């Protein structure tokens, strides 16, 4: 495990690193996730394992520090990630982001184009996330204090054992602020930033997930959209072979795009 100072008061981002060939690949997890748990089984497959790969935990999540004096907005996460990549000597990387991590990766590419040569986004959050519907339970149903004092326990019970296994590693304040960051989105939106980028961009969507809004518009802007067979939101967990095939440039059977 490696680390670098990336936040206030010496707060460190930590990551698991494998492989050795450049350019590097950087894996960024979603809200309540942890990078190595979601990516190791894919990034160690023979077709992709040779590349230097950093599976990085955002501040407040997984193995990384949990600074209280940190905003946890998408821009905050992107800037902290940039500081860690600078410390790791990474530039021109292929950045792979899942869900919230996809939005962070887009912001990173827009703010620090020297760090990113290609984006591979799995079910990335492209638009501000609406608040929970009345009568439903979500992270932003609670105030920050309520979430830290008992709301997180309710959410862990709701999401089930798979997601809870990594979500319970998150700092409640970090998770709550990050969830509000997803509600706020960015300005311009992550969708617009993605469409305006000129680097190679691939967006993976699970065939079993919700339909992708604005697919034709994204494709017209040069974003390669791939529908991955037998996959829901957690594409890399549901169909790792297809995920790896996208990374190494091949096309997995059953995938479209």
Question: How would you describe the overall organization of this protein?
Answer:
By secondary structure, the protein is α/β, with parallel strands linked by helices. The chain has ten helices and eight strands. Strands 1-2-4-3-5-6-7-8 form an eight-stranded mixed sheet. The longest helix has 16 residues. The chain is globular, with a radius of gyration of 17 Å.
Q: What's the helix-strand series?
A: EEEHEHEHEHHHHEHEHH
> Which homologous superfamily in CATH is the superfamily?
Alpha/Beta hydrolase fold, catalytic domain
Low-confidence runs of at least 5 consecutive residues: none
Q: What is the CATH topology classification name?
A: Rossmann fold
Mean pLDDT: 96
Percent of residues in helices comes to 25-40%
Q: Give the class from helix and strand content and strand pairing.
A: alpha/beta
Bulk shape: globular
């Amino acid at each position: 495990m490696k680390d670098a100072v990336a936040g206030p008061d010496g707060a460190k981002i930590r990551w698991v690193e494998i492989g050795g060939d450049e350019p590097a690949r950087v894996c960024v997890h979603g809200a309540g996730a942890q990078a190595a748990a979601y990516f190791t089984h894919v990034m160690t497959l023979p077709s992709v394992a040779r590349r230097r790969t950093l599976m990085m935990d955002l501040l407040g999540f997984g193995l990384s520090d949990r600074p209280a004096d940190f905003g946890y907005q998408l821009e905050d996460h992107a800037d902290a990630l940039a500081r860690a990549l600078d410390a790791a000597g990474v530039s021109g990387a292929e950045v792979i982001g899942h869900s919230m991590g996809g939005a962070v990766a887009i912001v990173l590419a827009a703010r620090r184009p020297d760090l990113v040569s290609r984006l591979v986004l799995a079910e990335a959050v492209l638009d501000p996330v609406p608040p929970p519907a009345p009568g439903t339970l979500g992270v932003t149903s609670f105030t920050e204090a309520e979430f830290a004092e008992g709301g997180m326990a309710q959410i862990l019970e709701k999401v089930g054992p798979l997601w809870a296994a990594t979500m319970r590693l998150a700092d409640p304040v970090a998770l709550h602020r990050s969830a509000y960051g997803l509600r706020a989105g960015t300005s311009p939106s992550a969708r617009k930033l993605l469409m305006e980028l000129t680097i190679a961009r691939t967006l993976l969507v699970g065939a079993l997930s919700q339909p992708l809004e604005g697919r034709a518009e994204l494709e017209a802007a040069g974003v390669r959209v791939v529908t991955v067979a037998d996959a829901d939101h957690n594409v890399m967990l549901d169909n790792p072979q297809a995920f790896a095939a996208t990374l190494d440039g091949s096309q997995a059977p059953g995938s479209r795009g």
